[in-house]
Write a structure and sequence with these properties.
This protein is mainly α and 279 residues long. The chain has one domain (3-258). The protein is 63% helix and 1% strand. It has a two-stranded parallel sheet with strand order 1-2. Helix 1 packs antiparallel against helix 2 (43-75) and helix 2 packs parallel to helix 6 (153-160). The structure holds zinc ion (ZN) (2 copies). One zinc ion binds at residues 112, 116, 125, 129, 211. GO terms for molecular function: iron ion binding; oxidoreductase activity. The chain crosses the membrane at residues 6-33, 54-74, 90-110, 150-178. Residues 97-232 form the Fatty acid hydroxylase domain.
Length: 279
Protein backbone atom coordinates (compact mmCIF):
# COMPACT_ATOMS: atom_id res chain seq x y z
CA UNK A 1 0.00 0.00 0.00
CA UNK A 2 1.35 3.41 -0.96
CA UNK A 3 2.00 5.66 2.01
CA UNK A 4 0.80 8.78 0.18
CA UNK A 5 -2.49 7.07 -0.75
CA UNK A 6 -3.00 5.98 2.86
CA UNK A 7 -2.25 9.47 4.23
CA UNK A 8 -4.57 11.12 1.69
CA UNK A 9 -7.32 8.63 2.62
CA UNK A 10 -6.74 9.30 6.37
CA UNK A 11 -7.09 13.07 5.92
CA UNK A 12 -10.14 12.65 3.66
CA UNK A 13 -11.88 10.25 6.08
CA UNK A 14 -11.10 12.42 9.12
CA UNK A 15 -12.95 15.23 7.35
CA UNK A 16 -15.83 12.97 6.26
CA UNK A 17 -16.31 11.39 9.71
CA UNK A 18 -15.87 14.73 11.52
CA UNK A 19 -18.30 16.59 9.24
CA UNK A 20 -20.79 13.71 9.35
CA UNK A 21 -20.66 13.87 13.17
CA UNK A 22 -21.12 17.66 13.25
CA UNK A 23 -24.02 17.49 10.77
CA UNK A 24 -25.93 14.60 12.35
CA UNK A 25 -25.35 15.56 16.00
CA UNK A 26 -26.05 19.20 15.06
CA UNK A 27 -29.44 18.29 13.57
CA UNK A 28 -30.42 16.25 16.63
CA UNK A 29 -29.14 18.92 19.05
CA UNK A 30 -31.28 21.45 17.18
CA UNK A 31 -34.25 19.07 17.28
CA UNK A 32 -33.73 18.57 21.02
CA UNK A 33 -33.72 22.34 21.61
CA UNK A 34 -37.01 22.61 19.69
CA UNK A 35 -38.79 19.52 21.00
CA UNK A 36 -37.44 19.56 24.57
CA UNK A 37 -36.61 23.21 25.29
CA UNK A 38 -34.46 23.59 28.38
CA UNK A 39 -33.42 19.92 28.56
CA UNK A 40 -29.76 20.69 27.82
CA UNK A 41 -29.85 24.45 28.09
CA UNK A 42 -27.96 25.08 31.34
CA UNK A 43 -24.47 26.61 31.40
CA UNK A 44 -23.12 23.36 32.88
CA UNK A 45 -24.63 21.36 30.02
CA UNK A 46 -23.26 23.79 27.41
CA UNK A 47 -19.75 23.34 28.89
CA UNK A 48 -20.27 19.57 28.76
CA UNK A 49 -21.39 19.78 25.12
CA UNK A 50 -18.19 21.66 24.17
CA UNK A 51 -16.21 18.85 25.84
CA UNK A 52 -18.28 16.23 24.00
CA UNK A 53 -17.49 17.92 20.65
CA UNK A 54 -13.75 18.05 21.37
CA UNK A 55 -13.55 14.34 22.30
CA UNK A 56 -15.79 13.38 19.36
CA UNK A 57 -13.64 15.22 16.82
CA UNK A 58 -10.55 13.48 18.22
CA UNK A 59 -12.44 10.19 17.77
CA UNK A 60 -13.07 11.12 14.11
CA UNK A 61 -9.31 11.31 13.60
CA UNK A 62 -8.76 7.94 15.32
CA UNK A 63 -11.60 6.20 13.43
CA UNK A 64 -10.19 7.50 10.15
CA UNK A 65 -6.83 5.70 10.44
CA UNK A 66 -7.94 2.03 10.17
CA UNK A 67 -10.77 3.10 7.84
CA UNK A 68 -8.14 4.70 5.57
CA UNK A 69 -6.15 1.46 5.54
CA UNK A 70 -9.32 -0.39 4.45
CA UNK A 71 -10.13 2.25 1.81
CA UNK A 72 -6.59 2.14 0.38
CA UNK A 73 -6.73 -1.68 0.35
CA UNK A 74 -10.17 -1.59 -1.32
CA UNK A 75 -8.78 0.52 -4.17
CA UNK A 76 -6.23 -2.20 -4.86
CA UNK A 77 -8.82 -4.98 -4.52
CA UNK A 78 -7.52 -6.18 -1.17
CA UNK A 79 -10.74 -6.16 0.86
CA UNK A 80 -13.98 -8.17 0.81
CA UNK A 81 -15.96 -5.03 -0.11
CA UNK A 82 -17.66 -5.35 -3.50
CA UNK A 83 -19.41 -2.90 -5.82
CA UNK A 84 -21.29 -5.31 -8.14
CA UNK A 85 -24.57 -6.19 -6.37
CA UNK A 86 -24.74 -9.48 -8.29
CA UNK A 87 -21.34 -10.68 -7.08
CA UNK A 88 -23.16 -12.48 -4.23
CA UNK A 89 -26.81 -13.62 -3.86
CA UNK A 90 -29.15 -10.67 -3.33
CA UNK A 91 -30.32 -12.04 0.04
CA UNK A 92 -26.77 -11.47 1.28
CA UNK A 93 -27.27 -7.68 0.99
CA UNK A 94 -29.65 -7.35 4.01
CA UNK A 95 -28.09 -10.33 5.80
CA UNK A 96 -24.58 -8.81 5.57
CA UNK A 97 -25.92 -5.64 7.23
CA UNK A 98 -27.33 -7.72 10.10
CA UNK A 99 -24.12 -9.77 10.40
CA UNK A 100 -21.97 -6.62 10.59
CA UNK A 101 -24.32 -4.98 13.11
CA UNK A 102 -24.46 -8.13 15.26
CA UNK A 103 -20.66 -8.53 15.28
CA UNK A 104 -20.18 -4.83 16.04
CA UNK A 105 -22.75 -5.13 18.84
CA UNK A 106 -20.94 -8.19 20.22
CA UNK A 107 -17.55 -6.42 20.18
CA UNK A 108 -19.08 -3.33 21.75
CA UNK A 109 -20.89 -5.27 24.51
CA UNK A 110 -17.82 -7.16 25.70
CA UNK A 111 -15.33 -4.31 25.40
CA UNK A 112 -17.86 -2.00 27.08
CA UNK A 113 -18.26 -4.41 30.01
CA UNK A 114 -14.48 -4.75 30.26
CA UNK A 115 -14.15 -0.95 30.37
CA UNK A 116 -16.48 -0.87 33.39
CA UNK A 117 -13.91 -2.87 35.37
CA UNK A 118 -12.43 -0.72 38.14
CA UNK A 119 -8.96 -0.49 36.63
CA UNK A 120 -10.04 0.31 33.09
CA UNK A 121 -12.98 2.61 33.82
CA UNK A 122 -11.05 5.73 34.92
CA UNK A 123 -8.56 5.40 32.07
CA UNK A 124 -10.76 4.45 29.14
CA UNK A 125 -14.45 4.99 29.77
CA UNK A 126 -14.90 7.78 32.33
CA UNK A 127 -14.82 10.44 29.60
CA UNK A 128 -17.98 8.99 28.04
CA UNK A 129 -19.75 8.84 31.41
CA UNK A 130 -18.70 12.39 32.28
CA UNK A 131 -21.70 13.31 30.12
CA UNK A 132 -24.43 13.53 32.75
CA UNK A 133 -26.91 13.42 31.18
CA UNK A 134 -25.48 12.83 27.69
CA UNK A 135 -26.57 14.94 24.72
CA UNK A 136 -26.55 14.36 20.94
CA UNK A 137 -22.94 15.63 20.92
CA UNK A 138 -21.87 12.64 23.09
CA UNK A 139 -22.27 10.27 20.11
CA UNK A 140 -18.49 9.87 19.70
CA UNK A 141 -17.37 11.42 22.98
CA UNK A 142 -14.83 8.82 24.05
CA UNK A 143 -11.34 8.93 25.49
CA UNK A 144 -8.87 8.18 22.70
CA UNK A 145 -8.11 4.74 24.20
CA UNK A 146 -11.82 3.84 23.97
CA UNK A 147 -11.99 5.18 20.41
CA UNK A 148 -9.01 2.99 19.51
CA UNK A 149 -10.82 -0.07 20.87
CA UNK A 150 -13.79 0.63 18.60
CA UNK A 151 -11.98 1.91 15.52
CA UNK A 152 -10.60 -1.33 14.14
CA UNK A 153 -13.58 -3.66 14.10
CA UNK A 154 -15.55 -2.65 10.99
CA UNK A 155 -12.42 -2.01 8.87
CA UNK A 156 -11.09 -5.45 9.98
CA UNK A 157 -14.42 -7.14 9.13
CA UNK A 158 -14.31 -5.58 5.67
CA UNK A 159 -11.24 -7.70 4.93
CA UNK A 160 -12.95 -11.00 5.75
CA UNK A 161 -16.76 -10.75 5.43
CA UNK A 162 -18.02 -9.74 1.97
CA UNK A 163 -20.15 -6.62 2.00
CA UNK A 164 -21.55 -4.48 -0.81
CA UNK A 165 -20.58 -0.79 -0.74
CA UNK A 166 -24.26 0.17 -0.30
CA UNK A 167 -24.73 -2.31 2.57
CA UNK A 168 -21.61 -0.90 4.23
CA UNK A 169 -23.08 2.59 3.88
CA UNK A 170 -26.26 1.32 5.63
CA UNK A 171 -24.16 -0.13 8.50
CA UNK A 172 -22.32 3.19 8.91
CA UNK A 173 -25.61 5.14 8.75
CA UNK A 174 -27.20 2.92 11.45
CA UNK A 175 -24.05 3.31 13.58
CA UNK A 176 -24.16 7.11 13.28
CA UNK A 177 -27.91 7.41 13.78
CA UNK A 178 -28.16 5.16 16.84
CA UNK A 179 -24.94 6.52 18.37
CA UNK A 180 -26.61 9.93 18.27
CA UNK A 181 -30.26 9.19 19.10
CA UNK A 182 -29.34 6.89 22.02
CA UNK A 183 -27.74 9.90 23.74
CA UNK A 184 -30.44 12.53 23.26
CA UNK A 185 -31.76 12.35 26.83
CA UNK A 186 -35.26 11.84 25.42
CA UNK A 187 -36.91 9.17 23.32
CA UNK A 188 -37.29 9.90 19.62
CA UNK A 189 -39.08 6.64 18.77
CA UNK A 190 -42.84 6.34 19.37
CA UNK A 191 -43.78 4.84 22.72
CA UNK A 192 -45.60 1.90 21.12
CA UNK A 193 -42.39 0.93 19.26
CA UNK A 194 -40.13 1.25 22.32
CA UNK A 195 -42.52 -0.75 24.49
CA UNK A 196 -43.47 -3.16 21.68
CA UNK A 197 -41.59 -5.97 19.97
CA UNK A 198 -39.16 -3.50 18.25
CA UNK A 199 -37.98 -2.19 21.63
CA UNK A 200 -37.64 -5.72 22.99
CA UNK A 201 -34.92 -6.36 20.39
CA UNK A 202 -33.48 -2.97 19.42
CA UNK A 203 -31.75 -0.53 21.79
CA UNK A 204 -32.99 3.07 21.79
CA UNK A 205 -32.39 6.03 24.13
CA UNK A 206 -34.78 4.58 26.74
CA UNK A 207 -32.43 1.62 27.13
CA UNK A 208 -29.04 3.36 26.86
CA UNK A 209 -30.11 6.27 29.07
CA UNK A 210 -30.52 3.79 31.91
CA UNK A 211 -26.89 2.72 31.40
CA UNK A 212 -25.80 6.36 31.78
CA UNK A 213 -27.81 6.60 35.02
CA UNK A 214 -26.88 3.42 36.86
CA UNK A 215 -23.72 2.22 35.03
CA UNK A 216 -24.10 -1.46 35.93
CA UNK A 217 -26.53 -2.62 33.25
CA UNK A 218 -27.64 -2.17 29.61
CA UNK A 219 -24.19 -2.38 28.00
CA UNK A 220 -25.36 -3.16 24.43
CA UNK A 221 -25.15 -0.95 21.35
CA UNK A 222 -27.86 -1.98 18.83
CA UNK A 223 -29.54 -5.10 20.23
CA UNK A 224 -30.59 -6.29 23.67
CA UNK A 225 -29.40 -9.83 22.85
CA UNK A 226 -26.18 -9.88 24.91
CA UNK A 227 -27.67 -7.91 27.81
CA UNK A 228 -30.54 -10.41 28.04
CA UNK A 229 -28.26 -13.45 27.66
CA UNK A 230 -25.81 -12.20 30.30
CA UNK A 231 -28.61 -10.90 32.58
CA UNK A 232 -27.38 -7.31 32.47
CA UNK A 233 -30.60 -5.97 30.96
CA UNK A 234 -32.67 -3.81 33.30
CA UNK A 235 -35.21 -2.77 30.70
CA UNK A 236 -36.08 0.64 29.35
CA UNK A 237 -36.08 3.86 31.32
CA UNK A 238 -39.51 4.96 32.37
CA UNK A 239 -38.64 8.34 33.80
CA UNK A 240 -38.00 10.49 30.74
CA UNK A 241 -41.36 12.12 31.47
CA UNK A 242 -40.21 13.29 34.91
CA UNK A 243 -36.85 14.57 33.58
CA UNK A 244 -38.59 16.41 30.77
CA UNK A 245 -41.10 18.01 33.15
CA UNK A 246 -38.20 19.18 35.33
CA UNK A 247 -36.41 20.58 32.25
CA UNK A 248 -39.56 22.44 31.20
CA UNK A 249 -39.98 24.01 34.63
CA UNK A 250 -36.28 25.00 34.69
CA UNK A 251 -36.71 26.62 31.25
CA UNK A 252 -39.77 28.47 32.55
CA UNK A 253 -37.90 29.69 35.62
CA UNK A 254 -35.01 30.84 33.41
CA UNK A 255 -37.45 32.74 31.18
CA UNK A 256 -38.91 34.43 34.24
CA UNK A 257 -35.49 35.77 35.16
CA UNK A 258 -34.09 33.11 37.46
CA UNK A 259 -30.79 32.94 35.51
CA UNK A 260 -28.99 29.65 35.16
CA UNK A 261 -30.79 27.25 37.44
CA UNK A 262 -28.69 24.20 36.68
CA UNK A 263 -29.90 21.08 34.96
CA UNK A 264 -31.26 19.10 37.87
CA UNK A 265 -28.48 16.53 37.88
CA UNK A 266 -27.11 17.96 41.09
CA UNK A 267 -23.57 17.87 39.73
CA UNK A 268 -21.36 20.88 39.48
CA UNK A 269 -19.17 21.12 36.38
CA UNK A 270 -18.85 17.37 36.22
CA UNK A 271 -16.98 17.27 39.53
CA UNK A 272 -19.34 15.02 41.42
CA UNK A 273 -18.28 11.39 41.25
CA UNK A 274 -20.82 9.17 39.49
CA UNK A 275 -21.95 5.78 40.70
CA UNK A 276 -19.19 3.22 41.00
CA UNK A 277 -18.43 1.23 37.88
CA UNK A 278 -20.14 -2.13 37.74
CA UNK A 279 -17.30 -4.55 38.09
ZN1 LIG B 1 -23.37 6.19 25.98
ZN1 LIG C 1 -20.54 2.60 29.97
Amino acid sequence: MQLSLFLAAAVFLTLVIGLRYLAVAGVFAWLTARRRPGLHGSERSRRQQRRERRWSLLSALIYAVPAAAALAAYRSGGTAIYADANAYPLWWLPLSVLVYLFLHDTWFYWTHRAMHARRLFPVMHKVHHDSRPPTAWAAMSFHWTESLSGAFLIPALSFVIPIHLGALAVVLAVMTLFGTTNHLGWEIFPRRLVHGSFGKIVITASHHHRHHKDYGSNFGLYFRFWDRLMRTDTGVSGDFGREEREARSRADRRRLGGGDVGDGTGSGAGSEPGPAPAE
